[in-house]
TrEMBL record:
The protein, known as: Methyltransferase domain-containing protein
InterPro entries referenced in this protein's UniProt entry, alphabetically: Methyltransf_25 (IPR041698), SAM-dependent_MTases_sf (IPR029063)
Pfam families per the UniProt record, alphabetical: Methyltransf_25
Taxonomy, superkingdom: Bacteria
Organism name: Candidatus Dojkabacteria bacterium
Gene Ontology MF terms in the entry: methyltransferase activity
GO BP annotations listed: methylation
Keywords: Methyltransferase, Transferase
Domain Methyltransferase: 46-135
């Protein structure tokens, strides 16, 4: 399982164009983006796992100074070609090295679920360090158990998906120094239930 994250990145590189076209609208995320905008403070924002930049653009258009990072070089290339209002960088999550208190807010939509449970715990500690005290942190994860490899949707290659229940996520967030403001179980995808979480 330890090499799977690299396979996940390779899958996104291979299907970046198809993925960006299929998920170009805010169908699943707009209400969470709007809640984030209404409840965030400050302007600097890190979009972890920004993909082709869809959410980054929406947040930038709302007045945030957005930096988007993603492990897929092809996704970052598409984001840079399409969006000039944000700064985009190709960066593996494990290599995030921003200074302490670098960002007012952090957005991580459907990205951290591609990490193993050990990696996820480590990245939460990094996020806590680079997020300013009181800053808003959004993450969306799939509900369930364990680490699974799936070939689903428009990405016709294996990707790692790690699933959690809300109690498990609440414990992990608490251990990293976060408390949950609010969360929602969302089943509009029908195939899987998503957990949309806002924490500080």
């Amino acid at each position: 399982m330890k090499n799977q994250p690299n396979a996940t990145i390779s899958a996104y590189n291979q299907y970046a164009d198809q993925y960006s076209k299929k998920y170009k609208t805010l169908r699943y995320t707009k209400k969470y983006l709007d809640y984030f905008i209404d409840n965030a403070s400050g302007t600097t924002l890190l979009d972890i796992g920004c993909g082709h930049g869809r959410d980054s653009f929406y947040l930038s258009d709302a007045g945030f100074d957005v930096t988007g990072i993603d492990g897929s070089s092809e996704m970052i290339s598409i984001a840079k070609q399409q969006i000039s209002s944000c700064k985009f960088e190709c960066c593996l999550f494990k290599d995030i090295g921003y200074e302490e208190n670098s960002f007012d807010n952090i957005w991580a939509s459907a990205s951290l679920l591609h990490l193993t449970k050990i990696e996820f715990k480590a990245i939460l500690s990094k996020i806590r360090k680079i997020l300013k005290p009181g800053g808003l942190f959004y993450l969306s994860m799939q509900e369930g158990e364990g680490e699974i490899v799936q070939n689903v949707s428009v990405v016709e290659a294996d990707r790692l998906f790690t699933r959690y229940n809300i109690s498990e996520l609440e414990q992990l967030l608490s251990e990293a120094g976060f408390s949950i403001d609010t969360y929602e179980r969302n089943d509009q995808h029908k195939v899987v239930i998503w957990l949309a979480i806002f924490a500080r």
